[in-house]
Specification:
Elements lengths: L1 H56 L20 H8 L4 H7 L6 H11 L8 E5 L4 H12 L3 E6 L7 H13 L3 E4 L5 H10 L4 E4 L13 H21 L6 E5 L25 H20 L3 E6 L2 E2 L8 H11 L2 E5 L3 E2 L2 E2 H13 L7 H4 L8 E6 L5 E2 H12 L4 E5 L15 H7 L7 H15 L4 H29 L1
Parallel strand pairs: 1-2, 1-4, 2-3, 4-5, 5-6, 6-11, 7-10, 8-13
Antiparallel strand pairs: 9-12
Length: 483
């Protein structure tokens, strides 16, 4: 019995000590649980704060169901780079706006956008480091207008060429911001700083065939980007600017009537690129109708010339001919090649004749409808692509290794031909540059920019000049016979 009592005493002592330990563990557990609960609450609050800040700074991103990777993000392969880096990240371009601002920055923006002549206009040019954008910006600055440029420098083609155009503009006193048109906060800031009279909206994802590889970039630029520009101009700009923007001859799609007229149907696009441009024209109609924006759409026809786009046929063919690489031609393809200087005259003419926006939705009263215009800007003289190659061969002094194939179903159309009578009537648009003269200007720039051997080219051009008189006589004889 004493032994049992002793044993029970030991057990009770153990239970007591165990209970105390249990109580300590429970208390400790409650403390940990309380701490965890507080930590959880703090984490949730911090997360909500971050979400709020994200929504405040990057509102345009929340509506995106896809992501666009920065041009510098991937170098694993050429294909991957083009698919994922062709369009700069909206996140990067939006976050860049956080670094914009400050007294010095504001002063530089106002200086660039300020007209230098009496009666000059102040123009925001999107896509200013692009082919048409750079030329238009130079022309506007040369006549004393205020110009502020914006470009996202994506890698659809070599960004180094865009940077070279940017330097050219900088030398003329034109600032080109590195930013995306989907950055609504930046656009609003720019309109707060500068009372722009006009917007020349040329930023877009170009190229017909590339749309089959990266369709979302076309929607982001050509549809969402256009809406962002219209939204800002309609709701945040005071005064509302007149907008001239780049549509495309591709909207005519499968149209068989020639020459293409603004009165022809445009409801059968042959490519996604064309579809986004057609969508842009419909969007322009709605913003004109609701918000009273003065909007002019320009349908460009195969623009070429110095500082051009390397993805265009004439440019890529020139590079291949010089390098001795084969080129692929589509049988029977004809294009209404339009020289850059003629297109610039058309863009400037459209800007100069654009009426003011009426701001109908904002003011709440009708002040008369603002104009909604659409014009073709072409050369009116379709030329077989084989003829374009023959001119390049003569100017470069080297034969092309040609491979002719049937036109595939990749969005290209067999021919383009512009009727420009409306543009001629409304702002005196008249193209004056022949394909021979335009390509010579291009080759002169091409040789200088890429530091090629000029001896061969000059000899080839001299030989081509000797043949010109005979060609002119033949042309004159042909004209006489046909009249």
């Amino acid at each position: 019995m004493p032994t049992d009592a002793a044993a029970k005493g030991v057990k009770l002592e153990r239970y007591a000590s165990g209970g105390a330990l249990l109580l300590r563990r429970v208390a400790s557990g409650k403390f940990v649980a309380a701490s965890s609960h507080l930590l959880f609450r703090a984490t949730v609050l911090a997360t909500l704060a971050l979400v709020f800040l994200f929504a405040f700074h990057y509102p345009s991103l929340l509506s995106r169901s896809f992501s666009l990777v920065s041009a510098d993000a991937s170098s694993s392969s050429a294909t991957s780079s083009r698919l994922h880096a062709s369009h700069r990240s909206l996140l990067m371009s939006s976050s860049a706006s956080a670094t914009y601002g400050g007294e010095k920055w504001d002063k530089e923006i106002r200086r660039s956008a300020k007209p230098r002549r009496d009666g000059g206009i102040s123009v925001l040019v999107t896509g200013a480091a692009g082919f048409v954008g750079a030329h238009c910006s130079l022309a506007l600055r040369a006549r004393g207008d205020g110009v502020l440029g914006l470009d996202n420098f994506n890698s659809y083609y070599d960004p180094a060429l865009k940077r070279a155009r940017q330097r050219l503009l900088s030398d003329r006193g034109v600032v080109v911001l590195d930013a995306d048109i989907n950055d609504a906060l930046l656009l609003e800031k720019l309109f707060d700083l500068v009372p722009f009279t006009h917007v020349l909206h040329l930023a877009a994802q170009a190229g017909v065939r590339y749309a089959m590889e990266a369709p979302h970039t076309y929607v982001a630029s050509n549809v969402a980007g256009l809406v962002t520009v219209f939204e800002t101009a309609a709701k945040h700009a005071d005064p509302q600017p007149a907008i001239v923007w780049a549509s495309s001859s591709s909207v005519y799609g499968l149209n068989k009537e020639t020459p293409f007229s603004e009165d022809h149907r445009t409801d059968r696009p042959a490519s996604l690129y064309a579809a986004t441009k057609k969508a842009g024209e419909a969007i322009a109609h709605s913003y004109n109708h609701i918000y009273g924006l003065s909007i002019t759409g320009l349908r460009f026809f195969t623009v070429y010339g110095p500082w051009g786009r390397p993805d265009m046929a004439y440019f890529s063919f020139a590079r291949s001919i010089v390098a001795g690489e084969p080129i692929t031609l589509y049988a029977d393809a004809r294009r209404d090649f339009t020289y850059i200087d003629d297109v610039v005259k058309g863009c400037v003419g459209a800007l100069d004749t654009a009426a003011r926006s009426t701001g109908s939705a904002r003011s709440g009263k009708k002040t008369g409808p603002a104009p909604l215009r659409v014009y073709n800007l072409g050369n009116t003289s379709p030329v077989p692509v084989t003829r374009m190659v023959a001119i390049l061969e003569k100017l470069l002094g080297k034969k092309a290794n040609k491979r002719v194939i049937a036109m595939p179903s990749n969005g290209d159309v067999p021919f383009t031909h512009a009727n420009v009578s409306h543009a001629a009537h409304d702002f005196g648009y008249r193209p004056t540059t022949s394909l021979d003269a335009g390509l010579r200007h291009f080759v002169d720039w091409f040789v200088e920019y890429y530091k090629l051997d000029t001896k061969i080219v000059k000899a080839a051009q001299a030989a081509a000049d000797k043949k010109k008189p005979a060609t002119k006589k033949k042309a004159a004889a042909g004209k006489s016979a046909s009249s």
